[in-house]
Amino acid sequence: MRPPVTPRERSTPEPAPARDGASTPGSGPETASQSSSPSSSESSSPAHEPVTDLSDLPPAWSGRRALAWPGVPLLVALALWAYAVRHTDVSRLDDYGLVSALHPAFWAGLAVLTTGFWFTVRDARRPGAWSAAYVLGLLVMERATQAVLYPTPLYAWAWKHEAVIDHLLTAGGLQTADQVGDMAVYDQWPGFFAAQAALQRLLGVDSAAMFMAWWPLASSLMLLLPLLLIYRTFTEDRRLVWTAVWLFYVANWVGQDYFSPQSVAYALHVGVLAVVLRRFGRSAVRRGRPRQAVWTVVITVMIVAIVISHQLTPGMLAVCLVALCLSRRYRDWVPVVTTVVIFLAWCLTAALPFLSAAMPDMIRSIGDVGANVETGYGATPTGTGAIVTSWAARLLSGSVLLLAAVGVLRQRVLRHRARPLLLVAAAPLPMFAASSYGSEMIFRVLLFMLPGAAFFAAAALLPKVRTLAADAAAQEAGSRQGAPAESRRGIGVWVPLAALLGSTLAFVPAYSGKDRINYFPPQEVALVRQLFDQAPDGSLVVAANRNYPDAYASYWSVDHYWFLDDARSHVDQIVRSPAGTLARDMAGVERPARAYFLLTQGQLANSEMNGQLDKAQLDRIRKSVAASPRFRLVAENSAGWLYVLKQAGGAER
Fold first, then answer.
1. Of 10, 34, 510, 576, which is most buried, counting CB atoms within 10 Å of its CB?
2. Could you report the per-residue pLDDT of 296-311, keeping only the tens digit for each?
């Protein structure tokens, strides 16, 4: 039991919350050390009484065992993980992705890790290094498993980004909008690609594919420091801080941590919020104007990096900073004005060609919330495995948001102290009315809500944060009740553990349930590279969809046509008469260029699991092409087939 509050504790309270309910963000941990007695008017109001951060609970036991025992479940969990990855076969993934392929030892290790973390973190006197070690262990099990198991990098989008970097290195520059078509969005936001090209040269590697597989782990680690800074702005309780970090990582299943501009821009976004929350509060501004100029330069550099790298993140950052200004603690408009000015300057200059073409569609989508959150054709989970993993992701996000709502309602003191973080969590919601963002806006809104949502979700799992006076009264009531208090304590341990464990286990299907789509075996990589090694400039590559490795290799000199992107009527025509329709579509290519038809394992999985064409229909298309005298088989292996359209006149090679 927690000891009763001593008179000395009552006489040296923590600083009273500000009038709008926030703590003193802008100074973070050092604010807690600058204690001052509240005025009589403040202490008479429950919302302004000094608070306890639950940090004065005694350890479960003392001595060497208290220091060493958290290492046991951590080592056991990592040993089980190492055994599992050595005994997991990913050569034949089904519609459940990595979920059904993983060795059972992986699930046991994840359960041991989560349980060990919970019993470690809930003791506020235990060194925070143990909680940090558990979070790092979680990141290894979450984000490094795929890098260890798969011999090639995941995600067709990551391979696309590698192609952009390759072009930047070989051509010495990027293309204009009229030259590259749908690749203009990358050429007009080149910050990430320029930085990766420099990194590639610095490391002396031939391709970004050498480190792409490990990017999810690296980008997740980039988020750790800014998250800690944000959470420590509003609480000194290590239990709340590290539980919030844990929930952030297990709820971040959206998959924007892969090798992409979004991954870096998001880390910078969270970094800007951390600086603003800690250094742009009213008290921080009063303490040091000269230092304020330094922090303005810091966030300006980060904002420039965000703006030149990604299209959506600057808008999300702007709405979050505007929301902060609704709190009286953050009325400094410098961060907001800086973000908006830099964003508009880039949009009206470097990005103007792309935005001019896209603006009519963007304007039409404003306010159409229903269409903006509607799943488009080719993005509807189809099949038992795809539907189950999709629901796992939805339930994971829903449970964390529900926990966050419970935390807001239950933790009255935090609701006031951390009101700025609550505003930041709610700020992305209006973006539903702004755009569909290629049917992904709902996922991006969830991603940008997570830092705040995870904090309040963690607060729902922990005991109530109370003022010192209320805490003393609760202790007196607890000592009178005796056994019932102990019973409630048991519920307070095991029920939150069950919620934490369920969320952690649900991350795996939510994050890795579509690995049948996202994984490309070495045979598929070899087949596609054989195609681009022999395709002359001006050639055309026809495929069902763009879900294959190196789909954008040589995009500056080779054209692409993905027939499932066409209107449904034309797709139906291809299904009815595959070889004849495809031959007509490919007939405009003149020598020395060639027209190729490529069908691979990744395309089949993507089409089947996303509700486009099923396996029987795609098999019919391939067999029709194989039987047609107008096509010739160039190469095939266990992962796909490559055909070339025979050209009229002259001998075929």
1. 510
2. 999 999 999 999 998 8
